[in-house]
Q: What sequence folds into this?
């Protein structure tokens, strides 16, 4: 637990002034929710509602987009920021100089229910630093959720699976949660060696991710549970091509609900992390994160394969243009697309046209309307001007 009693002076002063109490639940939440910013598997940047932000009043309330769609407010915090792992990119790694504290499962469950019953939040996102070992930590995470379920909370719970957790701990976690996530961290074992000396990539991360996938696909007991993961972009020396390739396999082979990306920001990790020597600025790393989300959207929603996502000779996405536009410029033979005749698949390849717009185009076509310009849709703007040059009417 964080905090310690103040040293008692030899002088005679009232005892009430001599003893410094341990921080209360609210003070612990302030510390732990602040540190949960380094675990952003609920955040992404594909719309205004999904950007990283928290409420101004209570830093542990997050507006988020759920893996299955829709938005909600989650109570998001760590159970503890103590950690025995040496993940070089993480400011909470063992030996780092941060204010440490923990909440008991009972404390956290009570705090969450107070906010839930007052209508401030609808669900819980719970993670933790690794205290003692993975299964000890999972026991505390699972016990928090179990308390809530026994108190008849039937709402949304997202639990983090700790790398290296046993199968029994993972099964118990899946039985309690609506969604689970285990961060893949980077693309491949070789890149992972630059990030951690206390975890084994295949044993502690890849195999548990595969286990969760098998359990979800095995039958009705766990298949309702959503599975997500997260890359720490730019901490290791991975390329965008590698991240996209791994994401493709996570979707197509393991059936993950979402893959998230969190840009490494220089100055929070150890000095020997490759990300500290990146040629990109922190702003550039955030742009890289954004481009990966755009590429992810093309794969999940627009029918692109991993091989179709355009990267440069070094294997990275362009920072100057979105990948859909880069693909269009490199495939002039595909265009123009006939707005009045071509399929939704072809229309989805047009820069500047999104799903909502294309659904409206198809609805107008079905009703007998012949589109002679994008003005028929009643909108103007930069994206429509971009689309115009790739369309035939």
A:
């Amino acid at each position: 637990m964080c905090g310690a009693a103040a040293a008692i002076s030899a002088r005679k002063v009232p005892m009430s002034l001599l003893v410094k109490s341990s921080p209360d639940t609210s003070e612990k939440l302030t510390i732990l929710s602040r540190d949960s910013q380094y675990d952003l598997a609920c955040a992404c940047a594909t719309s205004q509602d999904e950007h990283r932000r928290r409420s101004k009043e209570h830093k542990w309330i997050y507006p988020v987009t759920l893996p299955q769609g829709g938005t909600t407010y989650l109570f998001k915090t760590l159970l503890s920021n103590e950690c025995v792992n040496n993940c070089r990119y993480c400011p909470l790694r063992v030996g780092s100089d941060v204010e440490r504290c923990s909440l008991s499962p009972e404390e956290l469950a009570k705090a969450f229910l107070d906010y839930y019953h007052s209508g401030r939040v609808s669900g819980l996102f719970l993670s933790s630093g690794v205290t003692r070992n993975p299964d000890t930590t999972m026991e505390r995470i699972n016990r928090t959720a179990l308390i809530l379920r026994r108190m008849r909370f039937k709402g949304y719970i997202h639990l983090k699976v700790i790398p290296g957790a046993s199968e029994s701990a993972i099964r118990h976690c899946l039985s309690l949660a609506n969604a689970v996530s285990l961060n893949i961290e980077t693309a491949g074992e070789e890149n992972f060696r630059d990030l951690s000396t206390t975890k084994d990539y295949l044993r502690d991360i890849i195999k548990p991710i595969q286990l969760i996938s098998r359990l979800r696909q095995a039958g009705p007991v766990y298949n309702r549970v959503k599975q997500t993961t997260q890359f720490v972009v730019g901490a290791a020396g991975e390329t965008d091509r590698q991240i996209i390739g791994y994401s493709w396999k996570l979707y197509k082979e393991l059936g993950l609900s979402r893959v998230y990306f969190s840009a490494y920001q220089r100055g929070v990790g150890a000095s020997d992390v490759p990300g500290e020597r990146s040629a990109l600025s922190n702003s550039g790393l955030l742009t890289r994160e954004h481009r990966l989300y755009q590429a992810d959207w093309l794969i999940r929603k627009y029918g692109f394969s991993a091989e179709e996502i355009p990267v440069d000779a070094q294997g990275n996405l362009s920072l100057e243009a979105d990948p859909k536009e880069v693909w269009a410029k490199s495939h002039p033979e595909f265009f123009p697309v006939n707005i009045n005749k071509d399929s939704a698949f072809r229309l989805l390849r047009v820069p500047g046209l999104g799903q909502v717009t294309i659904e409206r185009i198809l609805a107008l076509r079905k009703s007998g309307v012949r589109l002679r310009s994008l003005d028929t849709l009643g909108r103007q703007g930069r994206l429509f001007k971009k689309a115009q040059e790739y369309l035939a009417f």
